[in-house]
Design a protein that fits this description.
The chain is an alpha+beta fold. It contains 7 helices and 12 strands. Strands 3, 4, 5, 6, 7, 8, 9, 10, 11 and 12 form a 10-stranded antiparallel β-sheet that branches. Strands 1-2 form a two-stranded antiparallel sheet. The longest helix has about 35 residues.
Length: about 300
């Protein structure tokens, strides 16, 4: 150890050491002060201006108008002679269920595109000249059911009403505007009878290509495959009361608006939209399915 030769030298050394310590402390301070600034910046993002989010919560005038605008015919909802469209409806289905030509319903309601109807839309389903309000009080008279001779037979294929057998069932002989002269639409046996809840008509057996006959005089109001579950379908309107439907055909031989006579071949039996070859045959009275076996002649 070197001897200290002068007190002044010792004081100078202490002063130098003190200045060095102060310098070291001053170098650390800015680093410690800057660290909180770097941490605080991410924690305080600028809030989005209130004006940029507020309009999204306010409905636009066009949307409000569309939501409150009533559907066509809404003022007639629930009135006799009018029908409110339900999910899954098509104009063909509505026509069948209401006992009308679907094209007439389109015309009565001035529908531009029959493929664009809305759930909740209300349609007139009786002719404009008919007092729809009177329908509520008139009601529907029950179908006339009469005994038929056991030897009665359906008209042969291609035969017109005028060529019916001389021994005709009473219903055919006394047919009126409301009660057509019915004949069996096919020669096969009945596979399944009428059940209002499940089977809306008769299932008649046959082979592919067997003739399907018009059950009474009338006019074709639909011929196509646009009704799910029916396959190739023909619908004939007989008068203001009755329609008949012929489903699951393999070939259709008539067109819409074509007049047909009882016993005329209108299709060939098939299995379209069905598990086996058969004719599904319906008779509808003012759109409601009725048991064809109560109207057709006995055989």
């Amino acid at each position: 150890m070197l001897p200290v030769r002068s007190p002044s030298l010792l004081l100078s050394i202490c002063a130098v050491l003190a200045l060095a310590g102060c310098a070291t402390s001053r170098n650390k301070a800015p680093v410690e002060d800057r660290q909180p600034v770097r941490q605080a910046a991410p924690r305080t993002p600028l809030p989005a201006p209130a004006s940029t989010t507020q309009p999204a919560a306010v409905p636009q005038p066009a949307a409000t108008e569309a939501a409150t605008k009533p559907l066509p015919g809404a003022e007639n909802a629930g009135k006799p002679g009018y029908y409110t469209v339900k999910p899954g409806d098509t104009m063909i289905r509505i026509g069948l269920d209401q006992g009308q030509n679907w094209r007439d319903i389109v015309r009565w309601n001035a529908i531009e595109n029959p493929n664009l109807i809305e759930v909740g839309q209300v349609l007139r389903v009786v002719p404009p000249q008919v007092d729809a309000a009177a329908l509520a009080t008139q009601g529907v008279a029950p179908a006339r059911v009469e005994a038929k001779p056991l030897d009665a037979r359906p008209a042969p294929a291609g035969a017109a009403a005028a060529s019916a057998p001389v021994v005709a069932p009473p219903a055919a002989a006394a047919a009126s505007d409301d009660e057509p002269a019915w004949a069996w639409p096919a020669a096969g046996s009945v596979l399944a009878g009428f059940d209002e809840g499940k089977q809306k008509g008769l299932a008649i057996a046959g082979k592919a290509g067997d003739p399907v006959l018009a059950a009474a005089d009338g006019r074709v109001v639909y011929a196509g495959s646009g009704l799910r579950g029916y396959g190739n379908l023909v619908i004939v309107k007989h008068n203001g009361t009755y329609l008949s439907a012929y489903a699951h055909n393999q070939t259709l031989l008539v067109k819409e608006d074509q007049a047909v006579r009882r016993g005329q071949k209108i299709a060939e039996m098939g299995s379209s939209d069905a598990e086996r070859v058969q004719l599904h045959f319906e008779i509808r009275r003012q759109g409601k399915p009725v048991d064809p076996a109560r109207l057709l002649p006995a055989r």
